[in-house]
Amino acid sequence: MKRSCLLKCSIATFATLTLIVFTPASNAQQGNVTRGDGPDTLPDSPQVLGTGSQRFRVVPIKGFFRPSALAFLPNGDILVAERSGALRIVHNGALDPQPIANMPPVVRGPSRRFGLWDVAVHPRFAENGLIYFTYLKPDPTDKPLAQAGGGEDQVGTSVLARGRFDGAHSLTDVKDLFVSNARTNGFSVARLLFAPDGKIFMSIGVPLRDKAHGGSNRVGTAEQAQEPGSHAGKILRLNDDGTVPSDNPFVGKPGYQPEIYALGFRDPLGMIIHPQTGELWEVEHGPQGGDELNIVKAGRNYGWPVISYGRAYTGELSKGAGGTGPELGVPTAPGMEEPFLFWVPVIAPGGMILYTGDKFPAWKGNLLIGGMASTQLHHVVMNQRGLPVRREALMTELKQRIRDVKQGPDGLVYLTTDHEAGALLRIEPVLDPSAK
What we know:
This protein is mostly beta strands. It is about 0% helix and about 40% strand. It has one helix and 29 strands.
């Protein structure tokens, strides 16, 4: 059944922000969303923010360079991946000045999208000590081009790797488990997520500004998201050793890469396993409008770049039967899925969680999604049937690009900020109404 048969448009107003929850069952509508990169600085002291339903304290841990992802070790330490390729440790709320040794070299171009992308701890870490990460591996066949503003334009390939943590400051047995054929010199993500069965979901984006769509990226195109022989624009499913599970949907299908689980994604920056349904949820950037949250099913096609609620950077519309954008109705095409949620204008979503803890009662059972261009933490309120009913924007005062979002074992929420002088933010509940 189409999800548009299940959910209709729901609109509410929260404070001064127009809050809109919609799926393709309704016409898209414009919401007032603050945009901007925000400053590269953050107050050193904790800040008390929030609303009447849930106040919270933001505790910054500084000293990072563009922190892209975080993961929790069983002893309470936190691993933080930096875009530069460094893997850092936070112990007892303080950043260890010594990075973890033996990380592989990464593409280090001028873009925010290059470098070390994600980090995850093996579900049996207590037994095997394995840490997994995704990164953009330099292509030895490419000749980097000098950039007018400094730095180099370098081609890289999205890779899944792992190493064994010695418990101090080093990885051993570091090796690439899976090297994709997704080559690019432009924006392209690679996120990873362990499923409850121990399999790995790995998302890989496509170049966001290739030459055919108003950009300058010289390697890779948006159309690769629809090409079965390319890993770009796909969500992959792998065993924990990087091999292909025998029950993947395209195993044995001529022309398809067997690692592919689903296709048609633009810039998948957040993935979760829904704690109640076990479904894979994914959130991604649209172009000019059209950010999406998708419920990902094996073998399905999610449409990019054929259908979208956004416009390409050239101003052109998608090719779907319904066109694109709120003025043209629902973008559709045979065999392609509609998003569960979409945003017009964009929020530039980062990481995502469905909060299950007890520390923030007003957030329990709801989505928290990082916003980069919108410089907000987005709270999507879900009803008892698991459907969205309204939204609110949090942390707008700080003007920080929120990259990763995770729920800690302690029930607190942790964020990373996408700035050169980036930070890990610990979000704590505030129970005293007079606290400042």
